[in-house]
Amino acid sequence: MSTMEWTGIILAGGLSRRMGSNKALLDWNGSSVLEQVIQAMSPAVQQVIVSTGTSSAAYQVLAYDCVHVEDDYPGKGPLAGLHAALKASETDWNLVSACDMPLLKPSFFEGIKKLIESDEEHHAIVPRLAGRIHPLAGAYHRYVLPELEQCLIHNRLKVTQWLEEIGCRYVDVDELESTGVHDVAIQLSNMNTPEEYEYIRNRHRGF
Fold it and tell me: What is the pLDDT of residue 1?
């Protein structure tokens, strides 16, 4: 069994413009979408950091004991949230998730850990399904922080471009399934609009 310690990072600093309200705090089976993600991630990590953008006060209602961090570079999107959380992390390796992926299971995070622990070459790993990259559901080493900060300073805010620059490893469904992750596409479902929220909540109730 590995003795490597991990931190969990959940990015919850988005403005939720298309949703019309804070999607992280929407109801999910009696708790919130964000708390559902925390619950799935917690067994795989020693600590959870919630990256809150500029609105940490909104997350004081959480039932879970998490560290809250605000952006050092406000208004610069998910890279700014990841930067703030990686700076606050006390472990080299960090599992990362967006706050709007309530169908993630503990098996996903354990699978990502297995892939990282057998790979000494890469400092980031994210899923790629049918050609689509999922940069906000994977793992990042704190080694990427200097290049990440340079992107923020110079307003190079495209996440996929940064992933190429740091030599990210992309893993497909077969690799994830080999570690015990099932229903990968369903687990990686996210929601940006009220319609997507209702679809995911109703279609996969009890998933």
Answer: 40
Q: Are 47 and 5 in contact (CB under 8 A)?
A: no
* SS3 call for 144: helix
Burial of 27 (0-12, 13-18, 19+ CB in 10 A): exposed
Give the model confidence (pLDDT) of 127-184 as tens digits. Answer: 999 999 999 999 999 999 999 999 999 999 999 999 999 999 999 999 999 999 999 9
Assess contact for 105 and 170: CB atoms under 8 A.
Answer: no
The DSSP code sequence of 32-79 is: EHHHHHHHHHGGG-SEEEEE-TT-GGGGTT-SS--EEE--SSTTSHHH
Whether the model clears a pTM of 0.85, i.e. scores above it, the answer is yes
Say which DSSP state 145 is in. Answer: H
